[in-house]
Design goal:
Layout (H helix, E strand, L loop, with lengths): L23 H13 L3 E5 L4 H4 L12 E3 L5 H15 L5 E7 L1 H5 L2 H10 L3 E7 L34 H6 L5 E5 L4 H12 L4 E7 L3 H4 L6 H10 L6 E4 L2 E4 L15 H5 L10 H23 L1
Parallel strand pairs: 1-2, 1-3, 3-4, 4-6, 5-6
Antiparallel strand pairs: 5-7, 7-8
Helix pairs in contact: 1-7, 3-5
């Protein structure tokens, strides 16, 4: 059981970093460092985090980090893991940290290859549901109806279910998280660290700039994502699916808040029609029916 009191006081995401106010990924990074400490190596492709880390020669991360090309997180992490093994270093955790564009789209091939090889690392996708670093273009993780610069009237497809895609690789651990429930995220990180093989954690990362909400609403937006069922907190450990609190109490549709409560707070959804909202609600309800089937298996 993780508690706030036992978290270390050390900060490895340093003050004065260039993250946007209220950035969900910056909050997640701080939690990551609190959970795992300094004996890690970060593998980071082109994404918002390459800005958050700070411009050369300054750095906002007090941990080693390797910047690599957009599509190569899984491949670069595999190389670092092999190098550490060759040198006999066993107490360093390799972290692949990439956005949704660099995971569900551009980097999927390298990640899939690493999973197929069983590379011993933790891959974390922080999902702000668009290509945030280059101006909020649509990605495969952008939800139905969302405004982006390349879908100005709203995307017409639902987002890719990347956690289940990774689970289909047969890897030992897959989980979802969100910074609005920090202790759940920290617990999953620490569990993943102790498991051998490829581990995948997918974080929903609210983005005030791209999602068009006030920067002081990040935690509230994240909690609503969970409470409406738009985002479920779960783990798949050795193929066994389990919902985590508070999602575990939301299997009954009546326990979930209407998706409208989540959508109405974000400017990227302001153009939605009632029919669009009904389609999103239908998709959420259908997704949760699938979760019921996965639990019963």
């Amino acid at each position: 059981m993780v508690t706030i009191k036992e978290l270390p006081k050390e900060e490895y995401l340093l003050k004065g970093n260039p993250a946007c106010a209220g950035c969900g990924s910056a909050i997640s990074l701080r939690l990551l460092f609190k959970a795992l400490g300094s004996r890690i190596i970060m593998i980071v492709p082109a994404c918002c985090t390459t800005v958050i880390q700070g411009p050369y020669p300054y750095a906002a991360f007090n941990v080693p980090m390797l910047n690599i090309v957009f599509e190569a997180t899984g491949a670069a992490a595999s190389g670092v893991v092999a190098a550490l093994k060759r040198r006999g270093i066993k107490d360093v955790t390799v972290i692949g940290w990439a956005g949704d564009g660099g995971t569900v789209d551009i980097g999927l091939q390298a990640l899939s290859g690493a999973a197929e090889r069983g590379t011993d690392f933790i891959y974390i996708c922080y999902d702000n549901e668009a290509y945030g670093n280059t101006g909020m273009q649509r990605s495969g993780a952008t939800p139905f109806g969302a405004w982006t610069t390349t879908t100005p009237t709203g995307k017409r497809e639902h987002k890719k279910n990347m956690p289940l895609i990774m689970a289909a690789h047969g890897i030992p651990y897959v989980a979802t998280a969100i910074p609005s429930y920090p202790l759940d995220f920290i617990r999953k990180l620490r569990k993943a660290k102790e498991i051998k093989g490829t581990k995948y954690i997918h974080i929903l990362s609210p983005c005030p700039v791209g999602w068009r909400f006030p920067h002081n609403k990040t935690i509230e937006i994240g909690r609503l994502a969970v409470q409406t069922g738009m985002w479920a907190l779960f783990e798949i450990e050795n193929g066994k699916f389990k919902l985590n609190p508070p999602s575990s109490g939301l299997l009954n549709k009546e326990k979930r808040k209407p998706v409208r409560e989540y959508l109405k707070l974000q400017g990227r959804f302001r153009h939605l029609t009632d029919q669009d909202i009904m389609e999103i609600q239908r998709w959420v309800d259908e997704t949760w029916e699938n979760y019921k089937k996965m639990i019963s298996c």
